[in-house]
Amino acid sequence: MANSIQHTLIAQTIRAVQELYSADIPSAQVTLQETRKEFEGHITVVVFPVTRFSKKSPEQTGADIGEWLKANVREIADFNVIKGFLNISLSNQYWITLVNTALVAPTFGSFPANGKKIMVEYSSPNTNKPLHLGHIRNNLLGYSVAEILKAYGYDVVKANLVNDRGIHICKSMLAWQKYGNGETPASSGLKGDHLVGKYYVIFDKEYKKEIDALKEQGQTEEEAKKNAPLIKEAQAMLQKWEANDEDVIALWKTMNGWVYEGFEQTYKQLGVDFDKFYYESNTYLLGKDIIQEGLDKGVFFRKEDNSVWIDLTDEGLDQKLVLRGDGTSVYITQDLGTAQLKYDEFKMDESIYVVGNEQDYHFKVLFLILKKLGKSWAEGLYHLSYGMVDLPSGKMKSREGTVVDADDLMAEMLETAKMRTEELGKTEGLGEEEKSFLYNTIGMGALKYFLLKVDPKKRLLFDPNESVDFQGHTGPFIQYTHARIKSVLRKASFDASVSLGNPSALSVYEQDLIQSLSRYPEVLEASAKEFSPAQLANYAYELAKLYNKFYHEESILKAEDETVKNFRLHLSAIAARIISECMRLLGIEVPERM
């Protein structure tokens, strides 16, 4: 629904109430919505708020306003009233003019630069294991939100904070040292991140054996976990790392290097990228100056054991440790320092952290501390919290070797796409290279769309087979629609420079398609403001459905005259462009042919 007609209807409804009932109604009380599919009309005015002025039934009030609007607004062709809802039908000429003046412009749906800078931090992997299904949702969500914000006019910085230090990293290093026999990615044929992940799992298995042995000797579970030789060795290795021990640092650099090469391949296959990498090994000490600043300002307090805390009980939270008694940092110490570093470097107006909902409390505390410290930029911080991803076979688990590996899942998606595409005979006339490109496009499109169509806050069940259904609410359905439109345009040798013309009448299918196309800018705006690719994803699906209905009900290539044919071809070209742009913002490619 184009904004100009909305503004016109709001203004004219206010005038109608003034003239009919001698009353002033604030614009906030004039509610417009798209007419529900089961009723005739395009835009619905909710008339219940007016009945207190009209002193009439909702039906009669709607009829009064409808008659007035029809007589005074030339874009209105007709109206009907269902209870307290005034359903307005817009004229053929309104829709034709909208296509000719707005939709056909190459700039339709684009927003000017808004002069604001925003950082989107996502991925944040650990360098002790490969990326898994949860990381896939994180990466796709972060990348898509960044692209949507860019399209909405922001200057966007895509950031990745890599967790490359700590006890978990030392566990992989120690296990490789003890059990690896010099194995490398080259000698094993494994991607570097998979190789390092293998030793993280080995550490866990050997550690459990030691715990069980100590428990048999009479130690409690807690005692055994602390006293197991492996964990003590890992802790000693961490201390050596923090003391800059040459051998430990060399091993750390080697194994991290393997992991980064592996990550790079996964990121490439996922189609995500970053403008800036931060590494915890460089940032973990940064927060200590901020702790001192907080102590000086009286925001933090020191306990007898020398540890530093903040009391957030007045805000409904609890007391939070921000620095240990021995002066070592905790996770939030580092996050405080990194937040300051990021702002100092980029001076962004807003900063989004794409992190799972298990960290909701952490980010509440982090943002609150920064506000209490008087950081003006803390108001612009936002935690984009998302739910877990499950597979039909059950919840993923890390550390035990049963994690749903990102690379394995993507390979499975490509195989599923290949099988389904060949079953449907959609590869005829394609060479091997084209087929390979198509399987990749469909498989990755299916995965991305399925994960992005769900509201980020919701937990979701990912079904690989369902995601590749060419008839369902899926990426491949939308991709196929785009390829279908491109096929029509090719057959017609469509020339975009030929003017649209002015058909004498439009069918309901054409009107519905134009109305949906006109909504693209407002959907993009809502997606950007709510950091929700799901809105754009679901819009693309509804648009594809409407195009298919139009395609089946109206002849395009064999239209009754050239004006109608040309108008329908232009409508098809606009639909292809907007579908393609929606999918691009979701990180999904659309094929030209299928």
Structure description:
Monomer. The chain has about 600 residues and is an alpha/beta fold. The chain has 3 domains: about 5-90, Gyrase A, domain 2; about 120-280 and about 345-390, Rossmann fold (3-Layer(aba) Sandwich), CATH 3.40.50.620; about 405-585, Isoleucyl-tRNA Synthetase, Domain 1 (Orthogonal Bundle). The chain has 23 helices and 14 strands. It has helices at about 5-20, 50-55, 60-70, 90-105, 135-150, 165-180, 185-190, 190-215, 220-225, 230-240, 245-270, 280-285, 285-295, 330-345, 360-370, 405-425, 430-450, 465, 475-490, 510-520, 520-530, 535-555, 560-585, and strands at about 30-35, 45, 75-80, 85-90, 115-120, 155-160, 275-280, 300, 310, 320-325, 350-355, 380-385, 390, 460. Helix 15 (about 360-370) links the parallel strand 11 (about 350-355) and strand 12.
Mean pLDDT: 94
How many domains make up the coordinates? 3
Structural class label: alpha/beta
Number of E-state strands: 14
- Evaluate the radius of gyration: 30 Å
End-to-end C-alpha gap: 31 Å
How much of the residues is beta strand, in percent? 5-15%
Parts with pLDDT < 50 across at least 5 consecutive residues: 395-400
- Total DSSP helices: 23
Known CATH architecture of the largest domain: 3-Layer(aba) Sandwich
What is the 3D form? Answer: globular
User: What does the main sheet amount to?
Assistant: 5 strands, parallel
Strand order of the largest sheet: 7-6-5-11-12
User: In the CATH hierarchy, what is the superfamily of the largest domain?
Assistant: HUPs
Q: In the CATH hierarchy, what is the class of the largest domain?
A: Alpha Beta
| Helical residues, percent | 55-70%
Query: What is the CATH topology descriptor of the largest domain?
Result: Rossmann fold
Motif ('HIGH' region): 125-135
Keywords: Aminoacyl-tRNA synthetase, ATP-binding, Cytoplasm, Ligase, Nucleotide-binding, Protein biosynthesis
Subunit structure: Monomer.
Family: Belongs to the class-I aminoacyl-tRNA synthetase family.
